[in-house]
Design goal:
Layout lengths: L1 H6 L6 E6 L10 H12 L2 E5 L16 H8 L14 H8 L4 E2 L7 E5 L2 H4 L14 H7 L3 E5 L8 H7 L6 E10 L2 E10 L7 H10 L4 E5 L2 E7 H15 L2
Parallel strand pairs: 1-2, 1-5
Antiparallel strand pairs: 2-4, 3-4, 5-9, 6-7, 8-9
Protein name: Aminoglycoside N(3)-acetyltransferase
Keywords: Acyltransferase, Antibiotic resistance, Transferase
Catalytic activity: a 2-deoxystreptamine antibiotic + acetyl-CoA = an N(3)-acetyl-2-deoxystreptamine antibiotic + CoA + H(+)
Length: 242
Amino acid sequence: MCAGLRELGVSGGAVIVHSSLSAFGEVDGGAEAVVRGLLQAAGTVVAPAFTPQVADPFPEHAGDAEADEARARVPLFHEGLATPMGAIPNAVLGWEGSCRSRHPQASVAAVGERAAEVTGRQPLAYAVGRGSPFEWLYRERARILLLGVGHDRNSFLHYAESLVPHHRRKVRRFPYLVDGERVWVRTDDVGDDNGRFFPQVGAEFGETGGVRRGKIGAADCQVMDCVPFVGFARRRLAELLR
């Protein structure tokens, strides 16, 4: 894993990893071996650790006994809450010394030299935009890794879209503790893409020569620098979202 990443130009610095463990084929040591290889190649490893299960199951429904009971079963976010994002993000969460940002639905997990810095702040509204871990990664010129997945899984495209004035929007609604009381919080964020534009924008960026490609095991992998990627994606999304 480490040798494959270095062949792709990953050496030191911060990386954000979007991944599918199954895409690699058989991996001796599983997800933990992948994380170990990532840490050998990079200084700080970040993975989206989103928790969409912390959400209102009836967002458009004012409420009745059935809705209230379902809402009461929604878990509060906590540091150890598992993410459905896959085995590798959960391995990052379980790594000794890992850190996690505190957003109830859009947290990231990090290990390595600067894990506490990248996870240190995240706004409740526009959790993937300005003031978020994604902005920190952008300032630090992190690399984006797609390991066995495509741009439909590239969360940095949400950050790029958040910088477009006429971006798509959605409402997040989640339970949250305020002075020890469980309340429901409603915030705005950039909307979901659902495969509409993100794969196209990622493919077009690849045509500029800004993506390094290779195989690690059976997985098709891509590495790109986040600053030129965000600049390109921001321009193209502004055009596509007119």
